TrEMBL record:
Top-rank taxon, per record: Bacteria
Record flagged with keyword Transit peptide: no
Gene Ontology MF terms in the entry: mannosyltransferase activity
A biological-process GO annotation: endoplasmic reticulum unfolded protein response
Keywords: Repeat, TPR repeat
Sequence intervals crossing the membrane: none
One Pfam family named in its UniProt record: TPR_16
Listed InterPro entries: O-mannosyl-transferase_TMTC (IPR052346), TPR-like_helical_dom_sf (IPR011990), TPR_rpt (IPR019734)
This protein's name: Tetratricopeptide repeat protein
Ranges: TPR repeats: 203-236
Length: 441
């Protein structure tokens, strides 16, 4: 059954890889390797030793052997060795073609790798053998990830999985994460709270609840929740970062900076501490220091795309747009651009009046989504810069009809004013206001 967390931090993996020292594998002569393996009551590395010894003995029934293989596969998965886990699940299927554990195991391996189409196949095969909560939950989440089901269909299926086994909390937690990613934070909060009613010490569920609360600006409550997670698992990177963010949003900059330094000291190769430190320093009015933190960090080879985009953000906060564009160019060379890449490019290019680069950015965004109201507005601004005023007005009107706020058009009207098009500007404002009144009548 799916019990591992979707987010495994470096600390968890390091713990899993600690040597087993010299204590004997078996607690007593009355316990066999097979039983100790199938009990699964130890850390992953030690469990691997126990299960491999059990399988080498070759004793026990087929059912016991399959159980040992399943335990070994999950032990491998829990230390990041999914290839070995997948091989074991495939061997289980060869021995027992109707093994639901093997089918579900292959489903979870594919799910963890975001190969949702494959995951759907494995989970739905398992459902044809036994209609279980785990298989139904895995299939529901995978179908959503593969764009084979919409949000509400997925939530219904996850509720059904939970109804099959009310003690199985994973469907509720997954509902929370799906709703959180869909920006339905109050519904996500409710799902995470239901999950925690079943397992109050679910670390991943506490993280999810903290994020859902933070995204509703409930920073004090979010901080209380994430502090609970840190009590249960001290020093966890993802939870320290979440704590730091809540402190940052509460304007407790001194404490947040302390958390950032703690993360950098404990996890010097991870992005979160440097990003948090830069954000806090900027909030304290130390913009240059904030930039320096991230410039020094991303200057090393192999830093993540995420850290580079945060450098762009901090440079833009400090009106260092030429440098921001340079970093964006480097990102295009080193990584696949993020969905917001060209939005960042437009922001800096338009500030520098680099209209050629701004046009590249807008055309790229229009290719992604030609009906995005904000991008259509950007197009109108650039057309006005090019003195194509009639087309610019048409595009600006389209942007408003798509949902762009008519009160947020200062850039557009500013270009008209700079171009001496005062009469046009006044007439267009009047038309926008008349259209707004007509829509209210």
């Amino acid at each position: 059954m799916r019990l591992t967390l979707p987010i495994l931090s470096a600390a968890v993996l390091i713990f899993a890889l600690l040597p087993a020292h010299s204590r004997p594998l078996l607690p007593s002569s009355e316990v066999t390797f097979s039983k100790a393996c199938r009990d699964r009551d130890t850390d992953p590395e030690r469990l691997i030793q126990l299960c491999e010894a059990a399988l080498e003995e070759g004793t026990g029934s087929l059912s016991q052997r399959l159980d040992a293989m399943d335990a070994l596969a999950w032990a491998y998965s829990n230390i990041g060795k999914d290839a070995q886990a997948q091989q074991l699940f495939e061997e289980m299927l060869a021995l027992a073609p109707r093994s639901v554990d093997a089918m579900n195991g292959l489903g979870w391996i594919a799910w963890d790798a975001d190969v949702f189409d494959d995951a759907v196949v494995h989970f739905e095969k398992a459902l044809k053998v036994t209609y279980s909560a785990e298989s139904l939950a895995g299939a529901a989440s995978s179908r959503y990830g593969a764009d084979l089901a919409d949000l509400e269909e997925t939530l219904v299926a996850l509720e059904a999985a939970h109804a099959i086994d009310p003690d199985y909390n994973w469907p509720l937690r997954e509902m929370g994460w799906i709703l959180q990613r869909a920006d339905q934070h109050s519904r996500a909060e409710a799902a995470f709270r239901r999950n925690l009613e079943i397992d109050a010490e679910d670390i991943n569920g506490l993280l999810g609840l903290s994020r859902a609360l933070r995204d509703q600006d409930q920073y004090e409550d979010a901080l209380e929740v994430i502090n609970r997670a840190l009590e249960l698992r001290p020093g966890e990177l993802v939870h320290l970062y979440e704590r730091g963010l809540n402190l940052y949003y509460l304007d407790r900059d001194r404490v947040a900076l302390g958390v950032a330094k703690q993360i950098v000291e404990s996890y010097p190769e991870e992005d979160e501490g440097y990003v948090l430190m830069a954000r806090v320093l900027h909030a304290r009015g130390q913009g240059d220091a904030a930039v320096n933190v991230l410039q020094n960090y991303v200057g090393d080879i192999g830093r993540s795309r995420w850290a580079n985009y945060w450098l762009v953000e901090v440079l833009q906060w400090n009106d260092r747009h030429a440098e921001a564009l340079t970093v964006l160019e480097q990102i295009e060379t080193d990584y696949d651009p993020a969905s917001y890449h060209y939005d960042d490019m437009y922001e800096s290019a338009i500030e520098l009046k680099d209209l050629a680069r701004a046009r590249i950015a807008v055309d790229a965004m229009l290719a992604q989504d030609s009906s995005d109201a904000e991008v259509v507005y950007y197009d109108a601004v650039l057309l006005a810069h090019d003195r194509q005023f009639d087309r610019a007005e048409t595009r600006a009107q389209e942007a408003v009809s798509l949902g762009y706020a008519k009160d947020d058009m200062d850039d557009f009207f500013g270009v008209l004013a700079e171009s001496g098009e005062f009469v046009r500007m006044i007439q267009f404002r009047v038309r926008l206001n008349d259209a707004a009144k007509a829509s209210q009548d």
